[in-house]
Amino acid sequence: MRTRNILWPTDFSDTASHALRYAIEMANLYQVGIRILHVVDQPFGDENYMVLAITPEELAKSMEDAAASKMHELLGQLNTKLKIETVIRRGDAIDEILAEANSGDIGMVVIASHGRTGLSHFLHDNVAEAIANKAECPVLVVK
């Protein structure tokens, strides 16, 4: 942990931004870098739903470009001397975050919990819970 980067997965929400403060604090404490990860969902094909006016590949590329723009804006707001690396992946959020967390050079994951309860908790994948249960490194879940 003390020599490996901290992974901060983000969906660019306010809750995720709150978790970034913890990631920065931990990175400063251990004098390590931060890897920022955003996962773009893979869109479904128009052959299944006949809804998209563009191809799934074009939609995914557009979503990746928007994420890159948000990532660039976020980096511009950070006032830190820490080494910061950004990664944008396409696929299932849980699978991609776990792949990054278990890659061998991540010492800790700092992830936001959106705090869903009741029926909403059962209807949506709980990304933070899945990462906490399946990551091979320590996970700090921030509310």
Automatic annotation (TrEMBL):
PANTHER family for this protein: SENSOR PROTEIN KDPD-RELATED, STRESS RESPONSE PROTEIN NHAX
Family per record: Belongs to the universal stress protein A family.
Stretches that traverse the bilayer: none
Pfam family for this entry, one: Usp
InterPro entries, A to Z: Rossmann-like_a/b/a_fold, Universal_stress_UspA, UspA
Name used for this protein in its record: Universal stress protein UspA
Species this protein is from: Shewanella frigidimarina
Stretches assigned to the UspA domain: 4-143
Entry-linked CDD domains: USP-like
